[in-house]
Fold this protein.
Amino acid sequence: MNDSDKPMTDPIKDRKDDETAALLVAQAFIIFSGIYWFLQLESVRELLELAYG
Amino acid sequence: MLTSVYEQNKRTLITSAVLLLAIAFAYSDLRLTIYGALMPMFEWFETTPFGYVGKTWGAAFATVQAVHLVGLGVLGGAVIAADGRLLGLLLSDVPAKTVVDRSHRVFVWALIALLATGIFMACGVAMKIYYLPVYWYKMLALGAGMLFHFYIRKPLLAHDIDTLNPVVVKLVAIASILVWFMVAATGRWIGFSG
């Protein structure tokens, strides 16, 4: 069996796969957190505006 | 050929599929169907011994809650130590691998304490949390955080950290801090709701 028959044993390809997956999830988390907390802060600001003008 | 592409990008493909499924689930009616179907389970939670003790014995609930909060503090400390090191903000005189590995051990024990005490507390206030949207955000963050920690972050950091792309490492550290901050913040929000 030559090396090309067992791609998952290639540590560089493994590392690239792990890095790409991590990049994908990290971006998703950061974007979701940004939107979520922005909307929460906006709702608090609107509430305060309603209460105090 | 396809098998080879899958094998070489297995984690990326599975992660992409999970993210797409999560987005599809968030915008589908299935979410509401599952929400309705979960109600009997939450009603049952309140009838379990944990539910009775949690509802009727305030001191027990307060003691378990104290352990829960200490667990949260320890978990937060482990996350800040490891991710702060990955960001190069603290403990920079200690190898990143050492900080990450030792923090992981603390993290796992804190998570076990959090889950055990969290289940007890949830039984005591099951119907209250069922109707709180923030509780479901907390569960979403907790599930996402655990998957992220064990399926993404840990395998990534098992490689030699110096060989990893530093931008990816820093983004992972920021995402990790954000997701556990969300778990803590939504958890305290539940405490102040209703």
About this structure: The first helix of chain A runs from residue 11 to 52.
